[in-house]
Specification:
It is a single chain. This protein has three domains: about 15-80, Uridine Diphospho-n-acetylenolpyruvylglucosamine Reductase, domain 2; about 90-210, Uridine Diphospho-n-acetylenolpyruvylglucosamine Reductase, domain 3 (2-Layer Sandwich); about 215-295, UDP-N-acetylenolpyruvoylglucosamine reductase, C-terminal domain (Uridine Diphospho-n-acetylenolpyruvylglucosamine Reductase, domain 1), CATH 3.90.78. The protein is about 25% helix and about 25% strand. It has helices spanning about 40-50, 105-115, 130-135, 195-210, 230-240, 265-285; strands at about 15-20, 30-40, 60, 65-70, 75-80, 90, 95-100, 140, 140-145, 150-155, 160-165, 170, 175, 180-190, 245, 250, 260, 295. The protein starts with 13 loop residues before the first strand and ends in a 6-residue tail after the last strand.
Amino acid sequence: MQAMIKATNPLSGKLINREPLARYTSWRVGGVADRLYKPASIEDTQHYLKSLPGDEPVLWLGLGSNVLIRDGGVRGSVINTRGCLKQMQETTNGLLKVEAGVPCALVAKLAAEKGLSGAEFLAGIPGTMGGALAMNAGAFGGETWGLVNKVLLLNRKGELIERKPNEFDVAYRSVSLAADEWFVACYLDIPVGGNEESREKIRQLLAKRAQTQPTNMPSGGSVFKNPVADHAARLIEATGLKGYSIGGAEVSKKHSNFIINTGNATAKDIERLIEYVRDKVEEKQGVLLQTEVRIIGEETAS
């Protein structure tokens, strides 16, 4: 039996029951969510969290990259920020306030338009700022938390919290974050530079991304973290796995650290291929790769 939601304040977002998640993930796979909520604002998100039963599982989902939702779907609530929590503005002290649902590429574009330099790498991250903050996403040598001045979070009770970067342990593709707290906005400190130079750098980075990554196929982004002083793609290719497939999932022939959905993949196909690649690389290269993508949900529908 599904838990009932009782809102103490009127909700202004959109609540959908039994929503298939494949349309919300960049791999185009994933089972059904018990509930999916698209919030109208940070305040509305607070009201929604306060309305939930105390034991309701909560998952946040942005553009659905860097995550594999299993075929059995997700129990509880999914808060989807795609097209929501999308405010961006320059503050009076020169910081850029960005809400969690803003695509990273738009942050790079706005920063360049305002003559700020150093955020260009965000154009290469196929996700939202909320996800980028949660995993310290990076591209082309830059990392998200190198720009962060402070962040706003919501906890399980719907309380708004402000924190500084030194209150987190931040590392390569890793941020210490309590299980019941989620990023809803950040303030970025981006140095002043030349806007035309920044725009040209973004164009070059996007051209490089299109040339080296399978951007025209459904994928979850980089599957494995790069080991110290090495690259996951090199290890996978050296193991002879470029183009290897299981069901509708295939190791990209363009970039070995991407697994693509060739059209009819299931989440199980992709997960089995991830496990196969990890095992074979360890067997042949002596390196145990760590996944960068998060694998979430039930293997079979309940």
